[in-house]
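TL;DR need C-alpha cells for one chain.
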Amino acid sequence: MPVEQIAIVGGGGTMGSGIAQVVAAAGFNVTIVEVSEDAIARGLKRIERGLEKLGDAGPAARARISTSTDLEAAGAAADHVIETVIEDFGLKEDVLGRLDAVCRDEVIFATNTSQFSISRLAAATGRADRVIGSHWFNPPPVMGLIEVIRGDETSDATLAATLALAHAYGKQTVVCKRDTPGFITSRLIALFMVEAARIVEEGIADAADVDLACKLAFNHAMGPLTTADLSGVDVLEKVADNLAATFGDRFTPPETVRQLVREGHLGRKTGQGFNSYEDAR
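>> reply
TL;DR here they are.
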C-alpha cells in the first residue's frame, strides 16, 4: 500500500514534533495529533524553527503538515501511524486500541518506545502482525538512527515496510529481532549510565571527567551522565530497575541515582542532576 498520509500521535511533544519535521521534510503529508490546540501550537513552533534551517525547502515541508485534536478522524485518514505519546504503557495501549477501531486494516502502527514490550502493546489491537517498534532518538532531525523492534507476531512484510519508510526519512536502521526489555540501545546506554554513576559514587572521578573520558576516548558525542541528565535521572532509575528485574544486579542503579531522584534533581528539566543547568530551567 502506498504511504502518503502519516498520522503522528503525540506530534506536538519534543520528540513527536521532531519526528513530524523529519517526515514532512522527506516529502510525506503529516497530521500532528494532539490532545489540545495549545500542545499543537507548541509543537508547530518547534517545527517551524527547525524548518528554517532547510532554507527554500522549509515552506514546502511546512505546507505538508496539518493538525488535529480528533484521534479517530486522523486515524481513519492515515496510511501509516507513528505513535509517540509519553512513555506511559496504559496511555499507549489506549491510543493503539482506539486507532485499531478506525484505521484501515492494512495500516501499520509504529510505536515509538524505548522500553515497553511491542507484543504487549500489540495485544491492545486486532492487528498484532502490523504493530512494530520504531524507536527514534532525540533530537530526531539530528540523530541518524531508528531502532526497529519486532513483536512476537510482527510480520516480515511489516518489518520490510517500516525499514523502507525509515530509509525514506533519511535514517539508518538497526533491527532488534526479539522483543526483549531495553531492546538494543536502551539496554546498552542504561548499563553505561549506571556504571558511570557508580564510578562517581565510589569517588573515582567527578561526573565531568567521566563524561569527558567517554567523549574523548570513545568518541561519544555526549557523556553518559550528561545523557542521563538530558533524558531525566528519574527515567534512568525506572528503566534501570526494569532491566535489573530481567537481567540482574548489573543494571541496579546505585544510591547516587536514587538520592538525586529523591531530592528532585532530575537533570536538565529541573536545573540540576549529575551536572548543574542553572540557565536551563
